[in-house]
Amino acid sequence: MGRQPCCDKVGLKKGPWTAEEDQKLVSFILSNGQCCWRAVPKLAGLLRCGKSCRLRWTNYLRPDLKRGLLSDAEEKLVIDLHAQLGNRWSKIASQLPGRTDNEIKNHWNTHIKKKLKKMGIDPLTHKPLQPTTHQHPSPTSPEARPPAPEHQRPKLNTVKAEATSTNTGASATSSRNDQEPPPPPLLSKAPGFCTDEVPMMHPDEIMVPAAAPPSTTACAAAAASTPTTSYSASASSSCDEEALFPVMEWPDTACLMMGLDDDVDMIAGAPPAATAPWDECLVQPPSPVYVDPCFSAFQFQQEAWNKLELF
DNA sequence: AAGCGTCTCAACCGCCCTCTG
DNA sequence: TCAGAGGGCGGTTGAGACGCT
Predict the structure, then answer these.
(1) Domain tally for chain A?
(2) Exposed, middle or buried by CB within 10 Å (0-12, 13-18, 19+), for A117?
(3) pTM over 0.85
(4) Which CDD domains does the record cross-reference, listed alphabetically (predicted)?
(5) By the 8 A CB rule, do A282 and A253 touch?
(6) What is the arithmetic mean of pLDDT over A167-190?
(7) Do both A280 and A204 map to the same domain?
């Protein structure tokens, strides 16, 4: 359909975020909640595209994020979920509170893949690698891979089969999964596959509704009672977040007053300093949460978390 | 100590889906 | 019904860190 880019790239900053930018973004979201990401950079006074802001927030700045390497248990869970879901990182991440899809994806590519290969397991299919006599191409090369399981089909057809139980009443994105066929049989039951070779978890150990993080349950309930389309609850972390940062329903006039129709003009034409004149916005500039420019992102995250507890 | 290769992961890119008017 | 906008998602990239020779 010839979709336009999410934002005009002219004049927008790219690359690593500075502590100052982090401050602005977190301050804005803590003060105003999450609305349309496209408006966030403008209102927060950032020279970033909305998508970049969303990514930065969800992958790095959210107060409920865990930091550091995945634990053994988390790693196990990722492996088993990957066997069932394939590269649906957001779905996998939804089973690991405080972890992001990006984080899991990176961990998979850098750590778990290697581990599985060392164990003689194809990380793509979760089946034993072909005997070395058949490995003319490198085992790591795509050519060497056995045919992908059903769940590895092209993205075009990746309608997800998320169990409705975990996302009942959740966002519209979950409806993507409505048409998906049931997940493939567990690999532990796949012919030619020995569960002894992989630290595979039984599904009962994974789908643990009773042990699900309380926030997930709370989110499901919240989503059921207060449906919203502004923010997808596709991941439990998002659910946590939604519970912590209720999506703000801004009045329609707010968007009008923000001049969202003039995105391109504002960003491409105006100098950075003029991109977010607060007096043109319905929302007043958030009062800064802190002023120390040397504040690290982590410190700020802690600060933000403390502030959240006041809600 | 310097040079080089490898690894890690934050960030970007582009496609796809859903919603809305 | 359709086009456009917004947002989500998975794949990929590249800069810095790290390790080896």
Answers:
(1) 2
(2) middle
(3) no
(4) SANT
(5) yes
(6) 36
(7) no
Q: Residue A217, class by beta-carbon neighbours within 10 Å (0-12 exposed, 13-18 middle, 19+ buried)?
A: middle
What distance in Å separates the CA atoms of residue A275 and residue A266, rounded to the nearest whole number? Answer: 6
pLDDT at A257 over 50: no
What percentage of residues in chain A have a pLDDT greater than 90?
Answer: 0
Question: Which of A211, A223, A216, A217 lies closest to A237 in space, CA to CA?
Answer: A216
Asked if strand B comes closer than 7 Å to A4 Cβ, the answer is no
Minimum-distance nucleotide, CA of A6 to C1': C6
Residue nearest to nucleotide C16 (CA to C1'): A16
DSSP labels, A81-132: HHHHH-S-HHHHHTTSTT--HHHHHHHIIIIIHHHHHHTTB-TTT-SBPPPG
Q: Are residues A259 and A286 in the same domain?
A: yes
The nt closest to A172 (CA vs C1′) is: B18
Tell me the CA end-to-end span of chain A in Å, nearest whole number. Answer: 43
Q: A181 and A286 in one domain?
A: no
Which domain range does residue A284 map to?
19-61+250-308
Find the Å distance, CA of residue A190 to C1' of nucleotide C11: 28
